[in-house]
Prior knowledge:
Elements: E1 13-17, H1 21-33, E2 36-41, E3 52-55, E4 58-61, H2 70-79, H3 84-87, E5 90-92, E6 97-100, E7 106-109, H4 113-123, H5 128-146, H6 157-169, H7 176-183, H8 187-192, H9 213-221, E8 224-226, H10 230-243, E9 247-250, E10 254-260, E11 263-269, E12 274-276, E13 279-282, H11 286-293, H12 304-309, E14 315-323, E15 333-336, H13 342-351, E16 360-363, E17 378-386, H14 395-413, E18 422-428, H15 430-435, E19 469-471, H16 482-495
Parallel strand pairs: 1-2, 1-13, 2-9, 6-15, 13-19
Antiparallel strand pairs: 3-4, 5-8, 6-7, 10-11, 11-12, 14-17, 14-18, 15-16, 16-17
Helix pairs in contact: 1-10, 1-16, 5-7, 5-9
Amino acid sequence: MNLAPPERDRRPHAAIIGAGVGGLATGALLAARGYRVSLFDPLDAPGGRAYAHRQDGFVFDAGPTIITAPWLFEKLWEDCGGRMQDDLELRACDPFYTIRFDDGTAFQYSGDRDRMEAEVARFEPADVAGYRGFMEESRAIYDVAFAQLADKPFHSFAFTLGVLARMVRLGGYRSVHDVVARHFRNEKLRSIFSFHPLLIGGNPFTATSFYCLIAHLESKYGVHYAVGGTNALVRGIAGLVERQGGSIRLGETVETILTEGNRATGLRLASGEEVAADIVVSNADPASTYGRLLKHHPRRRWTDRKLARADYSMSLFVWYFGTDRRYEEVPHHLMLFGPRYRGLLDDIFRRKKLAEDFSLYLHRPTASDPSLAPEGCDSFYVLSPVPNLAGDTNWAEMAETYRARIQQRLEETVMPGLGQHIVSQRIATPLDFRDRLLSWQGAAFALEPRLLQSAWFRPHNRSEELDNLYLCGAGTHPGAGLPGVLCSARIVAGLVPDPAQFRVAMDGRTGP
């Protein structure tokens, strides 16, 4: 009996570097458009910064834990022919955060306007009117910077100039803190309503006021938690890729983007294997994309000199730990502000100096989902913003000392006797961001979100250096944070050629 040879997959091939949320979402959307998709990632599971550590019966989300704009994820599933509810459950957090100051006072930050006004009044009755004015300004910025522009590519300088004119009228040349200070006189309230840029790697005193939109975004759509942890969201998007015939190759480090003339033609892996592609998408840090994967290629804009002169975000020290008891008094999201605000941020961003004091974000997901720890136990991570590796901290020597200082601080404030109950732990330092996640200077959020490193001034979603090369993720437009990363994926999916335009001769091609 003669059997016909299996039919080759003649769809054009999209090779994607990195299986973080941006790479996975781009892969899902490109597969839905008709591409054959392959993702390559050096880790042993998808997620990138949204990886999950599993040990001793505990699950620790490695990075992002705050989900806003859930409709963006619902739309992703819809565009891929599915329903998010079939793969993932999101639960609203109320309050969004508890913010605790060094003197023990606390603010319950929620999406309920009446409760928020009551909280503001507890700190400064005269600032209630300022709160209303700030939220109105946040809405106005959101209506332009997010609703109209977050999913638009900034490749035309003329388009950018037109947009900047609109944003200047909205005060985009000011910093987030400048805007907040115009509305609030109380210093604690100024800290509460200006800290959001830190969630995406920005300094509130230098981040463009565009990021004031986060307050309205959260108020409008809420803050959510993915049941099973943020990595459950990652697994859901990975499932979208695979259900559409895409492949995710783990434990594979991309060494080089292959080029021919001014065109990206594929990838070379660390193993020596070469993978041909019709388009290449990089979900890697743009500085690593240009400075490492394209170090052999002459670059006009993103030269080594320009990469060296850019301002990169802070890094993070993260301590993951599990306890053999539950701390019911600790909420899901707890911000522990230290004794200094601006001074600490100057140390982190400007001086690149590891300070003696710190502000912390304590995450207790088991407050909402006990399944992430053994029965009767709690899963935590505590995150401290720290300088990136442009500073001179020796993290190989300092890591345990710094962890012990954080433990002492938690014991003094919200978790007495903590040391007696820790049964599982691990840490991540800026070295992990550099070596494990391949982040330039160990920066946790790629380029710092300053005005002249935003929109057109960021690495473009369609590469300025090579045809058929595209960028997604935190380092490109519109920026870091899960909504920004997802918008970058949607931009790329709209920029790539229609698969029907490709006339691919499959015979003799090398592919996965």
